[in-house]
Each structure stands twice: as structure tokens, then as C-alpha cells.
Amino acid sequence: MDYFAALAIGIPVVAIAAVGCALGQAKVVSSAVESMARQPAVAAKVQLAMIIGIAFIESLAIYSLMMSFMLFGKLPKSEAVLEIFRKNTSNEELLSSAADIVLQLSAK
Prior knowledge:
Distance between the termini: 26 Å
Oligomer: single chain
Number of helices: 4
Shape: rod-shaped
Radius of gyration: 23 Å
Low-confidence stretches: none
Structural class: mainly alpha
Mean pLDDT: 81
Largest sheet: none
Helix content: over 70%
């Protein structure tokens, strides 16, 4: 059960890395354009450094999304999770509202 909880927490965290990559790319491009505007003579060198930096950031984004998709395939099916809820709780015990709704929907 702890393994699946770690997966359920880890997948969104890995996917958030893609958002961090997007913010990093925005910062790189913003800084490069600003420096080119200040010194047009070094625009070619700044542009080359910007493209190399963006390539590294983009590779990190691709790897993080790939890991997110790979881990997503390791999550158990919904029926298996519901079965764990049924085994670990008695009929009198109240589940959380979300789990209670899911159980009611699965009973239909």
C-alpha cells in the first residue's frame, strides 16, 4: 500500500518538473533578449548560448514527462484500490467523502 501511495504522490511531482522547465526556458529567453537589446554586437554569441541552454532544459522536460508516463503505468487499477478499501474498513467505519462516493458509484 505504501508503494502505491508513493507512486500516486510521485507522478504529479515529476510532472511538475515540466512546468519548472517551462519557467526556466522563459527566464533564459527573457535574459537573452534583454542582453541582446543592451549589446547588439554580441547577439550571435548570446543566441548560441541561449539555444544550447534551452536544449538542455528541453531534454530535462522530455525526461521528466517520460518518467511520469512510465510511472503512471505502474499504478494499480481502480478496482484493486477499491478492493483494498473494502478489506481495510469495516461496514460501520466511515470512509472519506471521496472514497465513499467512489464506492457508491462502483456499487451501481
